[in-house]
């Protein structure tokens, strides 16, 4: 019937986010003794690339109150950060 198989749809406007979990943020806060985690710190530690956007996900637990700047947050991550005494700030 068909020489070329039918392809799917690829949305050209889709925004891809790198996933960073709460346990990764906690290990960073423990090892570096920082109270603020942002895009520059994650790039410096080679967890994401310079042009990548990242989303904080809720796997793991956060024990220290840290200030997190991210492009997007999941609901569980946002509540866990605020419950630990930190703040979840969106980057434009």
* Number of discrete helical segments: 3
Distance between the termini: 49 Å
- Summarize model confidence as the mean pLDDT: 93
Q: Give the percentage of residues in beta strands.
A: 15-25%
Strand order of the largest sheet: 1-3-5
Low-confidence stretches: none
Helix percentage range: 25-40%
How many whole angstroms does the radius of gyration measure?
Answer: 17 Å
Number of β-strand runs? 6
Bulk shape: elongated
Structure description:
This protein is of the alpha/beta class and about 90 residues long. Helix content is about 30%, strand content about 25%. The protein is built from three helices and six strands; from the N terminus they run E-H-E-H-E-E-E-H-E. It has helices at about 20-30, 40-45, 75-85, and strands spanning about 15-20, 35, 55, 65-70, 70-75, 85-90. Strands 1-3-5 form a three-stranded parallel sheet. Strands 2-4-6 form a three-stranded parallel sheet.
